[in-house]
Amino acid sequence: MATAVIAIALCMSSLLSLTYAGANINGYVTGKVVCNPCAKKGKGGAPIKSAQMMIICFDKKTNAGTYARKGITDDVGVYKIAMKPGIEKDDCEVRLHKNSPLPDCREIVPGKNVTKVDFSTPVGTSNNKPLYSAAKVIGYKTKGSRCH
Q: What sections of the sequence does the record tag as coiled-coil (predicted)?
C-alpha cells in the first residue's frame, strides 16, 4: 500500500513539473539580419555576417525590463539567442545593437531595425529546446536604397 502511494505521488509530481516546464521559455529565439531588408520578396537582402543584436524583454503589466541578451549572426545572417525560463508572459523584441559590420550597408531603416518575438508556437527545436522566431527580418540599408 505504501509503495502504491509513493508511486502515485511520484507520478503526480512528474506531471506538475512537466506542466511548469512547459510554461517557461527555456529555449532560443532565431531570426535574420540582412542588408536592404526592404528588398522585394524572392530577392531578399544580402545576409550580414557578424551583425550584433540584442533581445530585450519587458513585463506586460509593469513595462519593467525582465531580460536582455546580446547575439551575433553567423555566416548566413542568422542569429540564435538563448532565453532563460520564466519570461513567457513578457513582450520581447530583437533590436540591432551595434553598427553594421558592412561599411557600405550601415544606414538604419526605421521599423526595420526591430522586431517582436512570437512565443505562441515554436518553429522547431535546437539542443532539445524550443526555437521561437522573430516576426520579421531586420537589417541596415545601403546609401541611396529605396528602403524607407
A: none
Candidate CATH numbers 3.30.70, 3.10.490, 2.60.40, 1.10.1660; the one for domain 25-141: 2.60.40
- The mean pLDDT value for 70-83 works out to 94
pTM for this predicted structure: 0.76
Tell me the HSE value of 129 on the side-chain side, using a 13 A CA sphere.
Answer: 17
- Give residue 117's identity as a one-letter amino acid code: V
Give me the long-range contacts of 68-72 (CB less than 8 A, separation at least 24). Answer: 70/97
User: In which residue are the cell numbers 522586431 written?
Assistant: 115
Of the candidates 57, 68, 140, 134, the one whose C-alpha atom is nearest the C-alpha of residue 98 is 140
